[in-house]
Each structure stands twice: as structure tokens, then as C-alpha cells.
Amino acid sequence: MSENTYPVGTPGQPWGGAERALWLSRQTRHRSYATDVLSVVERLRDRFDVQQYGQLDYGEDSYPLMAVRSRDWREDLPTVLVTGGVHGYETSGVHGALQFLQTEAERYAGRVNLLVAPCVSPWAYERIHRWNADAVDPNRSFREDSPAGESAALMRLVAPLGDSIVLHIDLHETTDTDESEFRPALAARDGKPYEPDLIPDGFYLVGDSENPQLEFQKAVVEAVAKVTHIAPPDDQGEIIGSKVVSEGVILYPFKPLGLCAGLTNARFATTTEVYPDSPRATPQQCNDAQVTAVCAAMDFALGQAAR
Questions:
Q1: Which InterPro entries does the protein's record reference (predicted)?
Q2: How far apart are CA 217 and CA 208, in angstroms?
């Protein structure tokens, strides 16, 4: 452990309203959700159904929340949920989801109902941040009475689908800024000591400790290994503090932690983690890894359903 020297707050004391306001005042817009996401979604309308499932209002900023659905939706087909940008700073999660829609999604027409929410946290996307404007992490907020509007809106969108969802793949990244900014900020916000960790170099998956489905996880890792390298375990046999249970796979309890990947009761669920800061990976490679993961996950799930 080390004393937290994050520039907002007093070490050892959780943030109050003044600290959250100071933190918010330090956040700067770096990119455009309208340009990068909404314009792409708009161009997909000729091939898919596009749905606004909510709206976020933060001060003067307003963000429509958009989802893309299969046009040939059928009640007798299984449903696949793809989510990206739950953490807005994790760029390939957003652009990978959009690339999948643009290049691969139509291959599955007539085989699955597809629902894609490519950018769950647009305010954070624009500011390249993990939290929303209230300093709340949406990916710890998928629970009843959610404190995050981003999470609550996605929960409302998905709720009517019930157990028809057989697969949920949530697209994320692990970045160097996890250690330089976001984990120190979390410790400062909560008044706790900062505990440094290592950033893994490569792709890995987070499965559900209560429903691991390791053959499924293995199939996704093997497919992605053809696109980019898989993160090795550290000297303790761990990745970010969790035991590696299969090459490139660790496990978290999805629902108790309020993770997006625990949003449904899908038989198959996983969180991808791409490492965009690796000298061995380009931005396009990161996007390709996300697309490959989605396709491999869908192929495995459909293969199991056909048995």
C-alpha cells in the first residue's frame, strides 16, 4: 500500500460534494460522441433497427443512448447482447462494437436476435474517463436502484428480453491509465490507501466465478490469439490480482460486483480486456480483437445450441 497523493481530496477521507465538484471541474471533453458514435449508428439504419433507449443529461450536455437491433427479430431465435463503452475511456470497446455491426453482424441474420449497445457511457467516452459525471463507475452499478443512469437505462432496455439472452459479451480494455489515474482516483474517492498493481500486456477475459463456462472462454481466447497476443500471468500466477484459471482467463463474481456482464442470466457471458498501450498492438488490432471475440463467442454459443 502507499499513501494516495491524488490531487482531489484528503488522504483517508472519502469525498463529499465539494470534492466531487472539484473533480468534475477538472474533466475535459477530448472527443465527440456525436461524430464518433451517433453518425456511425445513423448510417446503420438501412440494415438494422436503431432504438433510442434513454437519455443522459449532465448539466448542459445531453446524450441519447442508442442500441442497434436485428431487423429480422424473431421470438423463436436466441438473443445475443453485445455491450461496449461501459467504461467510456476504453476505446476499442466502442469502436469494436461498431466495427462488428459494420462488417460481421449480418452474417448472423436469421440465426440470432442481435442487440448491440455500442457506447453505454457517452459522457465518459467524450472525456476518456472510467466514471460518469457523478464520479460513479457504471460497471459496478448494475443492480437494483442503480446510482448510474447509464446502467439503469441499459437494465431497462434488456429487462423485457428475460432469459431469451443466451450470450452477453461486454467489451472492455485494461490501460496504463488504470494505474496512473483511475485506481488512484478510486482510492481517493473512497478514502482508502492506494494499492498499486501490474498492468497485464495482452488480451484476457473475465468470466463469471459462479458460471465460468471455461470451454467457452477458451474458444474465445484461441480465436483472439490469431489477432493479438494473450496476456501471461504474473509471477503469482495472476492477472490484476486474480488467479488465472485458463490461458488468458480470470474469474469475478459478476452479479455481486454489479458488473455489466452479470446483467442477464445468459448461459454464456464474458468481459473482454484488450491492452491498447502495448507496443505489440495497434488501435486497429485492438478493434479487430474485439470483433474476433464477439464472433468467436457467437459461433461457440450457436454451436452449443445446435447440439
A1: AstE_AspA_cat (IPR055438), Peptidase_M14 (IPR000834)
A2: 10
> How many structural domains is the chain composed of?
1
- Residue corresponding to grid cell 436476435: 113
CATH code: domain of residue 261: 3.40.630.10
148, 138 in Cβ contact below 8 A?
yes
The pLDDT tens digits for 239-270 are 999 999 999 999 999 999 999 999 999 999 99
pLDDT interval class at 115 (50, 70, 90): very high
Confidence of residue 44 (pLDDT cuts 50, 70, 90): very high
Range of the domain at 254: 17-305
Closest C-alpha to 199, from 235, 243, 231, 170: 231
d(CA 141, CA 127): 20
